Amino acid sequence: MGKEDNSFGAQLQEYFTYEGRLNRLPYFLRILGFWAVMILLLVIAVVAEMMSEYLGMLFFFILAIAYFVGLIFLLFQAIKRLHDLDKSGWYLLIRLAGIIPLIGWIISLGFELYLLLAEGTHGQNRFGPDPLGRNEYNDNNEYQDQYNRTYEAIDAEYETVETEYETVNTYEETDETVYETRE
């Protein structure tokens, strides 16, 4: 087994890669985190603008760079979310419909709601293992319950067969004893 790399670079790479899958909650939290950082930077930039025009310009420049990097970050997160839904990352082109006024915005909003609310595929798909660790045998304990019932039935049948075997074995021992005494 390989040792997990928990370095800052490895963590950063995990956020800026399109490989793998991302389920709903981490996707939502990452979007929320992005917007929280953007709002915080905007507040800082506005306050800096009030203090000094040049300082404000500097912070708005930093905000613009952070926003651009954040959009790339969100792009990677959306691709991984699509992978969790067993869809190609190319489906993100649907978001380009947002450039069309009103109808495009509705389409983009619907697509984003789909990404936020749709349940990912259960078990491994072509993009990797399920981030929730589900598979066909432990998904929602449906198969686990079936396994438990089957195991209990087999165990009960085994005990019945074992009891019958002991009865037959006892009978054969008794029959051999009777046979030996007759000779």
TrEMBL record:
<keyword id="KW-0812">Transmembrane</keyword>
<protein>
    <submittedName>
        <fullName>Uncharacterized membrane protein YhaH (DUF805 family)</fullName>
    </submittedName>
</protein>
<dbReference type="InterPro" id="IPR008523">
    <property type="entry name" value="DUF805"/>
</dbReference>
<keyword id="KW-1133">Transmembrane helix</keyword>
<keyword id="KW-0472">Membrane</keyword>
<dbReference type="GO" id="GO:0005886">
    <property type="term" value="C:plasma membrane"/>
</dbReference>
<feature type="transmembrane region" description="Helical">
    <location>
        <begin position="88"/>
        <end position="107"/>
    </location>
</feature>
<feature type="transmembrane region" description="Helical">
    <location>
        <begin position="27"/>
        <end position="48"/>
    </location>
</feature>
<dbReference type="Pfam" id="PF05656">
    <property type="entry name" value="DUF805"/>
</dbReference>
<feature type="transmembrane region" description="Helical">
    <location>
        <begin position="54"/>
        <end position="76"/>
    </location>
</feature>
